[in-house]
Amino acid sequence: MPMPKLVDHDKQRVLVAEAAWRIIRRDGMEQASVRNIAEEAGVSVGSMRHYFSTQSELLRYAMNLVSERVSHRVQKMSFTGSPMDNMKCLLLEFLPNTEEKLAEMEVWYAFTARSKTDPRLKELANTVYDELRQAVGSVITYLIKLDLSRPDLDKELEIERLYALVDGLGIHTVLRPDQMNAKLMDDVLTLHLASLCR
To answer: How much of the chain, in percent, has pLDDT values that exceed 90?
Structure first.
């Protein structure tokens, strides 16, 4: 008797989510139907139910996968440079300075727009943005703790300013890649961090 084919469901869910990403990048969020995603992933619509019971569940998983990949990269980082270099490297992990990260960010912003009308996606978007703000806050806190910051620095105000800067650089790169590039992002962060120091 032939052995039944074993399917790695976790791996298959990732492949389906990546198919959703491709459709969203290429054709827009409105084309990310279960049927179109199944076709892109090379699976039947019926078999999709083995991985996701609803379209909302599929989209939430695909959105969460972006966040998980960013978190995984941050966790793997080794901070061996100067304090300023370490802080800049951390912030650059949240910016689309590679093709892979640009793809993730394009998809992320599409999901963020969709989250305005989908409460389950909104909850996840809020969580991820809170985590980004915490990471930015750790940079400012680190500057103060090492006594590198200007004595008149307003901690909460500078957290909001750096948070807005990182988010803005990401948006500009997605919307105007002809004007914003990896070197310019690096230079902007270098200049901004220097302006926070004594």
So the answer is: 84
